[in-house]
Design brief:
Length: about 250
């Protein structure tokens, strides 16, 4: 019997990335909570009552979401007594927290580069529909495979259903507010938000990047070869469908 190989140690950068994905998923897996975070970011010093009004929620539900965000370090809480309240109980006010240096977690949620997205959209448009579609999907697929390699390296091949749930986590960490739904023998990943925003609506070809990401993630997580893709049925609101989803 030959010598037993030492287990391959996961690089610190990969561990930090996996932890960041898990942290973002836990905090922002609920689409409403993600929207509340974005609301607080644009309305600093807001209160739970104001959030409840903005989202038509019961104040206790709004407070629960805010407390979860605060527990994760995504928002900060301060106490402020309104002059109109006199000696009454001070109200909690919320604002987004500044990310620590080198912490990738908030970058995954808040990073937007509108200039680059606009440049991408126009570049794809100039290529023509067919060529732009192929290129956008190829770029997305390559990135998805690289992303899969960085998610819990060494875990081995997963079932398609387990992989789809991991895909939902990864997409959520990238701003898609995605969740997985088991539908009998099939599993769907439904995205409630799009990090490309209006650019995807104006240039639906950008959706090909998302499709490529899903295919690349699935291929990487399930261990399939590039020439043996897992069949995925995809829909996009930007293209007129009812939802943005990937179904296997």
């Amino acid at each position: 019997m030959g010598p037993v190989a030492d287990p391959v140690e996961t690089p610190p950068g990969d561990r930090r990335f996996s932890a960041a994905v898990a942290a973002v998923t836990a905090a922002f897996g609920d689409p409403t909570r993600r929207e509340i975070y974005l609301h607080v970011r644009s309305h600093p010093q807001t209160t739970a009552s104001e959030v409840a009004t903005a989202f038509s929620l019961h104040p206790n539900v709004a407070r629960h979401h805010l407390d979860r965000l605060a527990a994760g370090g995504y928002v900060e809480v301060s106490l402020e007594r309104s002059p109109a309240a006199g000696a009454g109980r001070p109200s909690k006010r919320y604002r987004t927290a500044a990310p620590p240096d080198g912490d990738p977690t908030l970058d995954l949620v808040t990073h937007r580069d509108d200039l680059v997205v606009s440049l991408l959209a126009q570049a794809l448009e100039l290529l023509g529909p067919a060529q732009a579609e192929r290129m956008a999907e190829r770029v997305g697929e390559d990135y998805g495979r690289q992303l899969a390699e960085r998610m819990e390296p060494g875990e081995g091949q997963r079932s398609v259903r387990a992989a789809m749930h991991a895909v939902a986590d990864a997409l959520t960490a990238h701003g898609f507010a995605a969740h997985a739904e088991d539908r009998g023998a099939s599993t769907a990943v439904v995205a409630e938000a799009c990090p490309f925003g209006d650019a995807a609506t104006q240039h639906p070809v950008i959706c090909a990047v998302d499709r490529g990401m899903v295919r690349g993630l699935l291929a990487g997580l399930c261990g399939t070869a590039a020439d043996e893709p897992i069949p995925v049925v995809l829909s996009s609101r930007a293209r007129g469908d009812d939802s943005c989803a990937a179904l296997v």
